[in-house]
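--- STAGE predict ---
source: upstream dedup step, 1 unique chain passed
mode: sequence only
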Amino acid sequence: MKMRIFIIFFILAVVLVASIFSIKNYFYYSKKSEIVKSVEVSKDLVLNNLIKYSNELVNSDGISFNKQNNVKFEDFVVLSSDNELIVHFWASWCDPCINEIPDLLEYLKRRKSDIDGKKLSIIFVSLDYDTESLNKFLKSFPELKNSQYLLLMDKDGLIQKTFDIDRVPSTFFIKNSSIEKFLTVVDWKRR
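--- STAGE serialize ---
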């Protein structure tokens, strides 16, 4: 009888501790949002930082960005002031990132005409450590390999450090000379 009570107590304790960590994680990501607006940040600055480290970035096949078909960042991002740029940092090992992806993909479907018309550019920066993990994840979300999106892997964390990303998901919305920086899950349904 005492053993049953001990086992029940032990199971309840494990469930309680797991619940506390889940709730703490939820509130961490939902309460820690940071939105920054700045006139000092521009698409040019973002692109210059991406171009600066482009030799270190690879695509989802592990090929250096600069070596894949002579593609340039400018091919994906139109630099006129009317256009928008989204730079989204994520990782396949990040639960909030995984939960966010379906809403993000739905948002991109709603903005398809802007993407087709080059009014909206999207750069996905994966913080995965190896291409195997990334490609395994991409099998669940093949829409992320759309040729209109730039999908990069920052396995050495150079871009992450440059943009001062200390958690994922993180997203930059850049339009004109202003930037919104979200260090949390974005509510894509309301954007």
